[in-house]
Every structure is written in structure tokens, then in C-alpha cells.
Amino acid sequence: MNDFHRKNDLLVFADEEKESPILKQEIKVDTSYWRILIVDDDEDVHAATKFALKGMSILGRELKFYHAYSAKEAQDILANENGIAVVFLDVVMESSNAGLDMVSIIRDELKIKNTRIILRTGEPNQAPGIAVVRDYDINDYKLKSEITQQSLYTCLTSALRSYQQICEIEEGRKGLDSVIQSTSNLMARRSGISFYKSIIAQVASLLAVEPVGFICGKELENQAEATIISALGRYVSEEEKTLASLSFEHEKKLIEKSFSKKSNVVEDNIVVLYIGSPIRGEMCCLISSTARVPDIDKYLLELFSSNISICTDNITYVEKLKTQAYHDSLVDLPNRTALENVIDQHLAAEKGKDYALALVDIDNFAEINASLGQEYGDKILQVTADRLKNRFYSPCTVARISSDVFAVFGPPSYITNERIKQPFSDPFEIGGELQLLSVTVGVVPANEMQSSGSEVIKDASIVLKQAKKSHRGEVVIYHHSMIDQACSRLDMLKNLRTAFELDELFLVYQPKLCLKTLEVRGFEALLRWRNREGNFVSPADFIPLAEQSGLIIRMGEWVLRKALSELNELQNMGLSNVKMAVNLSVAQLQQQDIVETLKRVMSEFSLDTNYVELEITESIAMGDIVAIIEKLKMMKAMGFCLAIDDFGTGFSSLNYLQDMPLDCLKIDKSFVQTTESKRGREIVQMIVNLARALNLNVIAEGVETEEQAQLLRNLDCDEMQGFLYARPMPAVELHKWLQAHRPNH
User: Fold this and answer.
1) Judging by beta carbons within 10 Å of its beta carbon (0-12, 13-18, 19+), is residue 492 exposed, middle or buried?
2) Within 13 Å, how many C-alpha atoms sit on residue 448's CB side?
3) Angle of CA points 162, 112, 67, to nearest 5°
4) Cα gap 215→425, rounded to integer Å
5) What is the mean pLDDT of each run of 10 residues along the chain (745 residues)?
């Protein structure tokens, strides 16, 4: 940028990173007269022009003449003198094209666009071409022989009027650019105090004065009381004072006037911008100057006021969003994101200092919330938060990271079993009632912490999940092996999904035999998985994963369809009276459409439901047992046989047993294989007697020795399955086994 344009920049904005910027102002041009440059190598032309226009005033201003006798002198004057309004330029000087070349220098090199150019020449044939007039924005062209006082006055007035209009348009554009730039600078602010000081600086910058002033505001909740929010310069001592106690009486009156009229107030040395908003209340920005405040278009001021108001509203929104992003309003605690930041800061700055993270889960909160209502549940969360805050203060951080899970982050001396459980030792009073709560806690000590807050919380969540499974109501300390196990389960689930999608799972079938005759009564379909390495994965490992993930729903339907297909094959082989048993998980029974699924799959085969046995585990008692019993009754009505699998290992109560439409009890192999002891025999006998009392068939699982088989016969057990006579076999091997076992069919 050349020197001329550096001088003519309207404003140079303050560096918004400084609280009290020193504003640069453009070099002022005396606007009491017009500057006229005469460029001609003939001194008589200079004298004649000056004489013809002597003492004249055009558009309210007198004329001041500058003289150049060569193109070089003209270039020097234009490069160093601001505000040349009109140039009278001779076409022919040092050379025949010196004047026309000068036009190119003015417009292209010096980048002077506003100055008007009037070409003059002594000969008609030296007139510029049309392209020159058009491309270089020449205002007029005159022959020197035509120069008279009247013609000079007329063409100069026209040129000055044009120059004045161009300058006004340019000033307006610069003013608008200044407003836009100032608004952009304000939008870059994110924090309250810095933002308000920046408003003062940007308004001062727009007015081209020093940043001396203050922001005064009224909150929506208290419109009667105005407060000094932020101040710069001589008003700094007034910060946080009320407007009523402001030490500067004149400024106080101007602020009150702006609030009253809800508009800007402008004086010679003071400008007050009104910045009202229905979102955050009213505000005024006062700028004071020891010198006269330059004139500025009132519409630009109003535009800037409007933009500042929008910026301030946006900052208000950002602050609210920030609060919502890091704060839990229900319990008045930091949330998960805020806790992650706290842990991150600790890990980055205090690695040598021991800290621990405890996640505190309220036991059975979901049931309490469902039975007593959300309002009651919210009260529990609030009183829990209060007790934790009162117990764990600085240097600890208490946060709520999910529905009923709270976190305590602090030194290990605070994160102890006794300290964490102490807030829950006394009952909570909620709505006039006493409620005793228990909690399960997962703790991650400092020496086990990962590199980020999110990782630490994730590790603690894994510990908490493990604790809720097998140590409910206790405090469990994290160990890295828990993560290894969790990762192993995650990998297994991923591989299981892949194996199922690629049809790599398969069924094996274990025969069920009559204990007395060894006749084949039926088969149990069992799911097997051999991984890519050729190793078998135990159903005890992958079936629970399938149930937890929900994959068991699709897998269960696939197993049923495969088992029915094999049953159809066996019946075609002549085994018309055998049954096929298929396991149903709790997750399947909890599906609303399980009965419809059974109907749909059965409709694909020409099979009687009497030959299909559905085995359910005792863990159904942990779910909605009433709803499950209703579904079992519907299945029984469809003709399915129903059996309780692994009886005696998990049923929490026998109350529901008599309500279930069962056909069979299956004695778990853990009891069968202890029948050599008196206690083991008594348990098996008890189960057989119970089955007889309920008129149910009895099947013993896991029979591996002849002694076990004989004892079961003596106890009057009906059927058995086990390695003694047949292992679970794929369909091809099963068919061969059946051929060998044909005499006992």
C-alpha cells in the first residue's frame, strides 16, 4: 500500500487482545478549502488559471492552489499531499504524451481514484482518445484557447461536486466496513469481562478516539437498578458501582437519558450507544473524549448499536450453553464433561499427586423411580447430591455423570470405603417419609488412571458394572485385569456377531433316553461355535454375551428353525415319536412378540407342536415373572411341551412353580454328579419327589457313569442325557449313532 492510501485509511482498529489499545487515527485533512493542482510547463497558464479563479468560493469552500511544472513534480505532490480534489493537467509537457502518461501514474501507480482530472491542451489534435477518457476516469477536457473565467468556474464546480460525492460514498463505505470489522472483533470474544471491555474499545475505535468509557447495564430481573459492568480509562474506579452512585454527574444524566429514550445520545465530547435486548436486559456504552468526537453518520451508529446488541445476545447464549454443557441443573453439580476436564487438568499438571475416582450408583434406583414416580426420584437425586457435597468438599470434586451415578474425585484419604458409604448410613427424608438407600461403588486409584478424564471415567464405569453384577452394595477397587476381561468380552462379542452373520455357528444334538429301556425319547438342540482358529468357544462364555447384547433374539430364532428342520428330517427317517428340545433365554421370553415368532417359524414346517419342547431356565424368576407365566400359558395352549432347565440352581422361589404350565423338570448335572454322597442323593430324590407331586416328567442331565444311571433308575427318574450313552453330535454323526442304536428305539 502506498503512502497516500496509508494516510487516507479511515480507521485502524485496536488490537482487541489489549485492554487499553492505543488507537491510530487517520491524518486529518483541513476541509475548509479545496486543493487544486495545476500541472503545466507554461508558467503563464498557472498565472492565468489562478487569476481567473482568484477569490472564488465553490460549494462553500475557498480554493488553494498547488503548482507543478513537470510530470515528476506533479507525482511528488500527489504522493505526499492529501486531499487534492482536482488536477488541471497539460497533455503536452516534457514529451508529447507526458500528460497522458501522468494520468496512468495517478490512477494505476498512485491508486488515486477520487481526485478529478481535467485535461488541457493547446492544440485540438492533441486531444486524448476515447479509450483514455473512458479507462482513466477523466472528468473533462478543455482547449487552452477556450479557458475563460466562466468556463473554468463551470468545469471546476462540476469536478468538485463529483469529488465531494465520491468522497462521501467512500467515507460511508469505510464507516460500514468499520462497523462490520468491529462487529467481527466482538464476535471473537467469548468471556464476559473481556467482551465488555472489547465493546468499549471497538466503539472508541469506530469513533477514532481513545478507549475511555464504561458499560452500564440493567438485568431483566431488576430493571430499576443499573450497574457499571466494565470500564476503561478514568472510569475504571467506577466498575461494579450502581449508576446512582456514579461519580460523574454529567455522564450519569446522559446514561439516564439514553435508558429513558431507548436511543443513542451524541454530544461533542461524549457518545452513548443504547444496547437494549429482551434477552438480557438494557445496556448503554458511554465513550468520552477530551477532543471533539468526529462526526459519524447516525445510521452507522444505529447499525453498530444493533450489531453490538446481537453480539451481546450471542455471548449471553454462549454463556448459558457453557453452563448447560458443564453443569447439571437438577442437582446443582458439575456434569460428566466438567468432571472429564477436572481429571484432564489433574493428569496434566499434578501427575505426582495421588488422586482417585469413585463412581457411586444408587441401588435399585430405577425400581424406586418407576414405582414412586419421577418427582420422588428427582428428590432422591437432589438429597444424595447434597449429602455428597457436604461430605466431600475441596480438594474433592463431586459430579453427576449419568441418571443415578455420582462421582467423587479426590485424594485417596477421602475415597475410602467408610467415607463413601457414610452419607448413606442414615435414612433420607423425602416428602415426609424416610427412605434408606444403599449404593454400589467402583473406584479407580491414581496408579491405575489412563491418560484422559474420559478414559478414567470409562474404567471406573467398568468397575461399577462388575460390582453391580456380583458385589451389589459394596465398594470395588479397579484392577487392570477387569479392563482386559472387558476387552476380551468385547472382542468375543464382535467375533460372535461376525460368525453368526457368516453362518459359522452350528447345532449339535444330544439324545434323551428312557432310563429303564434306553429307548430314544428325544433330542436337545445345542448351539456350538468354532472360531477362525479352529478352537471351540464354550457356550457358557458366548451365550451370556449374546443375551446381554440382544443378539440372542436373532440367534434364538435361527436355532429354532434349524432344530425344527432336523426334527423334520428325523421324522422322515422313521423316528415319529421323538421330541426336539430347544432352549429359550430370558431375553427371548421378555420379547413381546415371542409367541408370534414361534407361530411364524412353526408355520414353515409340517410339524406337530407336541413334538417340540421349549426349555427355560430358572433365572426367569428375576424378570417380570407374571408376564412370562402368561406367555408360557399361551405357548402351552399352542401345544408346546415346556421344561425347566437346570432345576435347583437358580430359582429364587418355588411360589411360581405351581402356576407354570410345565411338563418336565430337568435335574442339573451338578446334582447328578454328586449322587455318590448322601446329600447329593437326597437332593436328587427331593427333585424327583417334587416332580411327581406336580405330575411332571423328570430328566437327569450330565449322566456319565453306570452307577449314576442305576441310582437314577432306583429313584424312579424318567429320562437321562449324558456322555454315558451319547455326547452332543452334529446331524451327520447323530444319524450314524441312531443306526447303531436302532435296537433300542
Assistant:
1) middle
2) 21
3) 85
4) 52
5) 33 33 43 88 88 87 92 90 89 77 85 86 62 66 74 86 74 54 50 68 80 86 78 90 90 92 88 80 87 67 71 68 80 92 83 79 86 88 93 92 93 87 88 84 76 84 81 76 67 85 92 93 94 86 83 92 95 91 89 92 94 84 74 94 81 68 90 84 90 91 93 92 94 93 59
Relative orientation angle of helices 551-572 and 539-549, to the nearest 10 degrees: 120
Burial of 706 (0-12, 13-18, 19+ CB in 10 A): exposed
Q: Is residue 687 within 8 Å of residue 668, measured between CB atoms?
A: no
Residue 411: name the closest of 350, 472, 499, 452 by CA.
Answer: 350
CB-based contact 670:637 (threshold 8 Å): no
CA atoms within 13 A of residue 392's CA, in its CB half-sphere? 29
| CA-based torsion, 454, 455, 459, 465: positive or negative | positive
Pairing of strands 612-617, 579-584: parallel
DSSP per-residue string spanning 208-225:
TS---EEEEEEETTEEEE
Show Cβ contacts of residue 720 under 8 Å, excluding neighbours closer than 6 positions: 512, 513, 515, 699, 700, 701, 703, 709, 712
Helix H, strand E, coil C: the string for 402-458 is ECCEEEEEECCCCCCHHHHHHHHCCCEEECCEEECCCEEEEEEEHHHCCCCHHHHHH
Give this prediction's pTM: 0.48
Contact criterion met (CB below 8 Å) for 301 and 229: no
Residues 151, 142 contacting (CB under 8 angstroms): yes
Residue with cell string 478516539: 209
| Residue with grid cell 448335572, as numbered in its chain | 669
Cα 171 versus chain centre, distance: 44
Q: At what angle do helices 594-602 and 551-572 cross, to 10 degrees?
A: 30
Do 719 and 513 meet the contact criterion of CB atoms below 8 Å apart? yes
**Cell 418407576 appears where?**
370
Complete domains list, the chain, with CATH? 31-173 (3.40.50.2300), 189-325 (3.30.450.40), 330-478 (3.30.70.270), 492-735 (3.20.20.450)
Between β-strands 270-277 and 281-288, what pairing exists: parallel, antiparallel or unpaired? Answer: antiparallel
Measure CA 561 to chain center.
44
Which residues, listed in sequence order, are joined to residue 216 by a DSSP beta bridge?
Answer: 228, 284
For residue 516, count other CB atoms closer than 10 A to its CB: 11
225: its cell numbers: 437498578
Q: How far is CA 676 from CA 296, 707, 710, 711, 728, in A?
A: 106, 9, 12, 9, 25
Contact 407, 420 (CB under 8 A): no
Asked if residue 41 lies in contact with residue 69, where contact means CB atoms within 8 angstroms, the answer is: yes
CB 60 within 8 A of CB 34: no
3-state secondary structure 685-709: HHHHHHHHHCCCEEEEECCCCHHHH
